[in-house]
């Protein structure tokens, strides 16, 4: 690991204004500007599409396997972020997994509070199934709030009687709206984003809009986790959300769900999105591909 590169990223984050103190429109603008600075991996392009009436972007790597589809749910605390903003992350995942990736442009709070994002994710998943894509060909992935939303989607699909996807990959997932994890305090000084900005609580309130923070689709950590798809959890050790990940791993294991917890020393929130600068970010994305590769069906030729 390059300590110098990590220190530079942390220093840059520490110079940012606290997002939670800004108007929503300005929060979204700053977030899009930050995301736009990341590179795009070799893909055929980005195509706008609607699945079940929910908008999003398809991206296809230059080499892809026709039997692989990823449903990607972006981060942003349910308040900021967009499909266009997350083109870099999706393209990186598409390139290493050789999968077609659909980035869901789900509705954001506070205009569209809980459970709007969950409803949109389920509509897209159902739409893929209705279009003839079998569940064994679909994987779900997401970062931060999108990681929590990925877990909520697995739960919502199970309750709707739909088959589980092949697997799910979660990056720094936010799965506990009660903010009860001790790492919210113990990691505050080493988390340059959530620790300093303290945006988790205010954005949770914006998303919930008075709903019970313990609702299983808002806080999947507190849900019945039986009979879910295999799950990979990646998290940095310098994150306020560390306990969300470790507690989720323990509860998945107790529910007899196949699970891998991968804690990356000294890494910060969604370090995978910093793969332009961090070797660990690139290695983590490769690890996601290796995990998913063991659950996707094999035997179909690579398309060109």
Question: How big is the Rg?
Answer: 18 Å
Beta-strand content bin: 15-25%
Mean pLDDT: 91
Distance, first to last CA: 35 Å
Label the CATH architecture: 3-Layer(aba) Sandwich
Which sequence of SSEs, written as H and E, runs from N to C? HHEEEEHEHEHEHHHEHEHE
| CATH class division | Alpha Beta
Structural class: alpha/beta
Query: In which range does the helix fraction lie?
Result: 25-40%
Largest sheet: 8 strands, mixed
Which regions are unreliable across 5 or more consecutive residues at pLDDT < 50?
Answer: 300-304
How many individual helices?
Answer: 10
Task: Count all strands and give the number.
Answer: 10
State the CATH topology.
Rossmann fold
Number of domains: 1
Q: Could you explain how this protein is built, in words?
A:
This protein is of the alpha/beta class and 304 residues long. The protein has one domain: Rossmann fold. Helices cover 37% and strands 18% of the residues. The protein contains ten helices and ten strands. It has helices at residues 3-14, 24-36, 87-97, 116-130, 145-159, 183-186, 194-197, 199-208, 242-254, 279-293, and strands spanning 43-51, 54-61, 64-65, 69-73, 100-104, 138-143, 167-171, 231-236, 259-264, 302-303. The strands form two sheets. It has an eight-stranded mixed sheet, sandwiched between helices. Strand 6, helix 5 (145-159) and strand 7 (167-171) form a beta-alpha-beta unit. Helix 3 crosses helix 10. The longest helix has 15 residues, at 116-130. The radius of gyration is 18 Å and the shape is globular. The chain starts with a helix and ends with a strand. Residues 300-304 have low confidence and may be disordered.
């Amino acid at each position: 690991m390059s300590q110098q590169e990590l220190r530079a990223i942390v220093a840059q984050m520490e110079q940012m204004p606290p997002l939670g103190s800004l108007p929503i429109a300005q929060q979204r603008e700053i977030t899009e500007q930050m995301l736009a600075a990341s590179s795009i991996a070799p893909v055929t392009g980005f195509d706008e599409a609607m699945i079940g009436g929910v908008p999003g972007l398809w991206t296809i790597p230059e080499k892809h396997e026709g039997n692989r589809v990823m449903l990607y749910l972006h981060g942003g605390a349910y308040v900021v972020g967009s499909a266009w903003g997350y083109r870099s992350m999706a393209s990186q995942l598409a390139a290493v997994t050789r999968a077609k990736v659909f980035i869901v442009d789900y509705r954001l709070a506070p205009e569209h509070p809980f459970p709007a994002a969950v409803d949109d994710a389920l509509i897209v998943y159902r739409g893929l199934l209705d279009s003839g894509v079998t569940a064994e060909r679909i994987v779900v992935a997401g970062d931060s709030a999108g990681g929590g939303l990925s877990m909520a989607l697995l739960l919502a699909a199970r309750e709707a009687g739909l088959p589980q996807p092949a697997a799910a990959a979660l990056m720094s997932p936010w799965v506990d709206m009660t903010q009860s994890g001790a790492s919210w305090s113990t990691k505050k000084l080493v988390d340059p984003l959530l620790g300093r900005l303290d945006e988790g609580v205010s954005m949770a309130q914006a998303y919930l809009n008075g709903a019970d923070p313990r609702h299983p689709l808002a806080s999947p950590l507190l849900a019945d986790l039986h009979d879910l798809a295999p799950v990979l959890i990646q998290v940095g050790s310098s994150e306020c959300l560390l306990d969300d990940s470790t507690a989720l791993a323990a509860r998945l294991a107790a529910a007899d769900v196949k699970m891998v917890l991968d804690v990356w020393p000294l890494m910060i929130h969604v370090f995978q999105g910093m793969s332009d600068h961090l070797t660990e970010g690139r290695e983590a994305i490769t690890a996601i591909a290796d995990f998913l590769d063991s659950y996707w069906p094999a035997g179909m030729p690579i398309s060109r």
